Amino acid sequence: DLTEATLTQADLSNARLSRTILAQAVLHGTALAGSSIADAVLPGVDLSGCDLSGQDLQGRDLRGAIFSEANLGKANLTSANLTKANLTKANLGLAILTKVNINEANLSEANLYGVYMSFAAVWRTTLTGADLWLATISDVDLSSAFMVDSRLHGANLTRCTLPHNLHPDVVATLQDGAGLQPYERVILKDVKYKHVFGTYNSFVHCACGGLVSQHCSTCGSGASMCSGCVAAHCAS
What we know:
With 236 residues, the protein is largely without helices or strands. 6% of the residues lie in helices and 8% in strands. The strands form 2 sheets. The protein has a 4-stranded parallel β-sheet with strand order 1-2-3-5, covered by helices on one side.
């Protein structure tokens, strides 16, 4: 039982951690190469900066866990519970996220390149600045997610529910936007739109190339601008 233990920067390479209780433990930067935490008890564990690439975490209880800047590339998170987990700047490239629960989780600036996500719980999840390049997302309700500045180039969004306030030019911009290569265009198939109070999402390109659209709060202009251009708009 290592509940609330501090093992920062420890070397647990090839360690047998099956059924180890690591709830609320701090393993920031700990070496875990060759180790398996598949059967460990992990709610609230701090695994920030750890290399967990390829780990099998199917069905694990990871509520409130900290994975900031951790490497979860190619990890299997099928049916894992990551409610309120912190995955800021984490690498989840090519991870499997089928039926994962990331309600209220923070994935700001996370790398979600090529992830496969289906039937996931994504309620009020923060995906601000997340990179979803070539991600495959199907049957997921994204209407309450915070996705300002998210990168969706090449993503496949099939049977997803998107926020109603998505800019009307989004479909044209992401599917047939000027200068986009075929592999950069988003696939929007059988998507629906839903109104969720208090959320704001927009993915349309600004004239400067930014991927977020806003309106000038000074003059109320309907022009689509990124946050940087909004700040400079009407400055005079």
